[in-house]
Amino acid sequence: MKRERIRLGVLVLATTLVLNIGVVAEASSATPFGASRWREPRVTYVVSGSRYYRNIYATAIRAWNSTGQFRFIQGSNAHHQVTLTTSNSTTGQYHMLAGITFTYGPQKGYYNQAKVLLLTRNLATYHYTTSNQIHVAEHELGHVMGLQHSTARNSVMLADNRYNGISRNDITAVKKRYHTPVGRHS
Fold this sequence. Notes:
Blueprint: H1 2-27, E1 42-47, H2 51-65, E2 71-74, E3 82-87, E4 99-104, E5 113-119, H3 120-125, H4 130-145, H5 168-177
Parallel strand pairs: 1-2, 1-3, 3-5
Antiparallel strand pairs: 4-5
Helix pairs in contact: 2-4
């Protein structure tokens, strides 16, 4: 009985250390953001593509909207700032990408349009699960907001991310991006 308590105590101590080290590591790895951004922390969007990929985007948008730091608002075909769609292109520089974001402008440092592509052929070729694809969409939406690639292993903005959802550092970076004057970056 005494040995079991000691083992349990060591296990609890080891688990506590691992969890605390993980929190410290996350706190020290801020998600970077670029110098450009939208005028306000909100944009209008339209989605095209199959029902499956419209659902992928919808889930990723709900995840970002639930952070309270940025708002994606459904627009119309005639009035929107961001286009969310798919492509089956796998040539040239896209041969291994899962998604790509193009931001346009910036006029005086502010974006005026963006386009996100989920590259469906690559998602299938590299066996991305539905969850993986949602994380890719969250990652690309992070670029829409102005976030850059992170080196933090738990960040949705990790360049080769397919496993991570939105982290506390990602949320903090969006908040900072929209409280930092245009032209300045992290």
